[in-house]
Amino acid sequence: MLASSSPRRRELLGRLGVAPDRIASPDIDETPKKGELPRDYVLRMAREKAAAVERADDEVLIAGDTIVAVGRRILGKAENDAEQRQYMELLSGRRHHTMSAVCVIAADGTARTKLSDSIIKFKRFQNSEIDAYIQSGEGQGKAGGYAIQGLAEAFVISISGSFSGIMGLPLYETRNLLISSGYPLNQNGA
To answer: How many domains does the chain have?
Structure first.
């Protein structure tokens, strides 16, 4: 079972040969706690999303969360053009972290959580580039106001970490959690 409405997470799970039998969208309060560090926040979100969805006794459940962080500041999903512009201006020419946490609850009810922390550096943006990217609509509703797997990839100077984690589900960590939870994956690595 996948506790996420994200089409990207479904697509990424498919790369592991996993097709969820059920998909449910967890309904939780995603407000960061006062003084909560980005790492702690994203791990808590993955765990809370996993706990918020009803799971059958023999079902393996996967939940995840992804954030963009600049220092201690958490950049949530860009909800409008003004917020996306603010995020893009903040990320311009800077390194930032994209953190993805995944929580897997095994059939026996054991919950395991892992974190992927990737560092991305964007080029310095011209105002016209920000305008064009906002007009594309691609970054709306995305953490940090951008989608790495789309037009924003052309802004990347460097990446250190997991590309799939930046997209929303770190495959290495997810695969290892599924294996340790007893989920049967193919012998060829997927």
So the answer is: 1
Give a yes or no: residue 185 inside a domain.
Answer: no
Distance CA 120, CA 97 (A): 6
- Give the residue numbers spanning the domain of 86: 2-180
- pLDDT by residue (tens digit) across 101-145? 999 999 999 999 999 999 999 999 999 999 999 999 999 989 999
Average pLDDT estimate for 163-180: 96
Catalytic residue among 21, 29, 65, 131: 65
Which has more confidence, 78 or 190?
78
Q: Is residue 186 part of a domain?
A: no
Global confidence as pTM? 0.92
| CATH (domain of 159) | 3.90.950.10
Query: Is 65 one of the catalytic residues?
Result: yes
